[in-house]
Specification:
Order of helices and strands: HEHEHEHEHEHEHEHEHEHEHHHEEEEE
Largest sheet: 5 strands, parallel
Number of strands: 15
Oligomer: single chain
Strand order of the largest sheet: 2-1-3-4-5
Helix content: 40-55%
Distance between the termini: 57 Å
Length: about 350
């Protein structure tokens, strides 16, 4: 009878009091999505260190194995295989849906749990595999964004999306368009680009200009969203701009400056949270990494603590079952649970960039 990897590791730990528990982290630590990868890694590191400070997992310290997928499918697969060979109990990550598509078949075959802080593509969540997603689904966030933009007067939207993360971006376009049309709006133009291909940014935005949209929607990472906004403004396009949650990191504000004022995006992260757990985390994060925490680092911390909590309470159960059966997890900012398909049940809200900060919309 086949025993899953997490249970085998649990049995090994029970027999060897000094044996560490190995966890993996997989994310893009280089290239144009490195803000996601670095924030995820840093949040994961703090969670592991906090757990080890109180004895790890039932007396076994945690070792973290870090892999860089470079936002490249082949690298994601290679890093996953390396972690499986090292017998990790679970993998935190990857940070984009495209990398999830690449590595999930391997992890599922090996029966290793994958808990992603930021994967949210609907197509990946609707499967009975080893994926758990800490961020709300694309269908939920895109529909909220469409509803909000229609309510504030938008009727004709033009959308540009990144082909390098199709699992996420195409899903966002489809769900936003469906929600917008259901209220009476219409998607009047769509265009795509490839991250890092300089010519494709201008080509994509130029395709929108003749469609007379009253809203521009950009579905890309933070750096590319800024680039798209700059191109559209240089072309004289003054429409309001909506972005997907993928862009809503601190990098958007740092790189965009005044260019991103007024950009709206849905989020579940509260940057103004004054609760003791979050303030403790934020203080430690700033001291350790010399930067502000964002939704990615908080999601990574929550993902890692959920895995650690489930392993502490597994009592011989496979980790997948423990995550589904343990009920609510106390996150840094709110309690949340995994639904039957492994997707997080969390509240989201709309934000707008005002005076260089993300602020809640009225």
């Amino acid at each position: 009878m086949k025993v899953c990897g997490a249970l085998m590791l649990w049995m090994l730990c029970a027999c060897s009091p000094s044996a560490p528990v190995k966890l993996g982290f997989l994310g893009g630590l280089s290239g144009r999505v490195s803000d996601f990868g670095e924030a995820g890694r840093n949040g994961t590191l703090l969670a592991v260190e906090d757990a080890n400070a109180v004895g790890g997992i039932n007396g076994h310290l945690i070792e973290l194995m870090i892999g860089d997928d470079e936002q490249n499918a082949e690298r994601a697969v290679a890093a996953t295989k390396k972690m499986l060979a090292a017998k990790v109990a679970a993998i935190i990550g990857p940070m984009t849906s495209a990398m999830g598509e690449a590595m999930l078949p391997i992890a599922t075959q090996a029966e290793i749990v994958v808990v992603s802080p930021t994967i949210s593509a609907t197509t990946l969540l609707a499967k009975d595999d080893m994926l758990f997603a800490v961020s709300p689904s694309v269908s939920k966030s895109a529909t909220l964004s469409a509803t909000y933009e229609y309510a504030r007067g938008a009727r004709r939207v033009a959308i540009v999306y990144d082909l390098s993360n199709r699992a996420y971006t195409v899903d966002w376009v489809n769900n936003f368009g469906k929600g917008f049309a259901a209220m009476g709006g219409s998607v009047v133009a769509e265009a795509s680009f490839v991250s890092g291909d300089d010519a494709s940014y201008s080509q994509a935005v130029k395709k929108l200009s003749g469609a007379r949209p009253d809203l521009l929607s950009y579905v890309a990472n933070a750096v590319d969203t800024v680039r798209l906004i700059q191109v559209s403004r240089n072309l004289g396009m003054t429409q309001s701009i909506s972005a997907s949650p993928w862009a809503a990191t601190e990098r958007l504000l740092e790189v965009g400056g005044r260019t991103v004022e007024g950009v709206t995006t849905p989020q579940y992260f509260n940057r103004h949270d004054s609760s003791a757990p979050y303030l403790k985390f934020a203080t430690a994060f700033r001291k350790r990494f010399k930067q502000e925490p964002d939704f990615v680092s908080v999601a990574a911390y929550d993902a890692t603590t959920a895995v650690i909590s489930a392993m502490r309470q597994a009592n011989g159960r496979p980790l997948k079952r423990a995550l589904l059966e343990n009920g609510s997890f106390q996150g840094l900012q709110e309690p949340w649970t995994f639904g039957p398909d492994g997707s997080a049940q969390r509240q989201i809200h709309m934000t707008v960039v005002r005076d260089g900060r993300y602020s809640s919309t009225p």
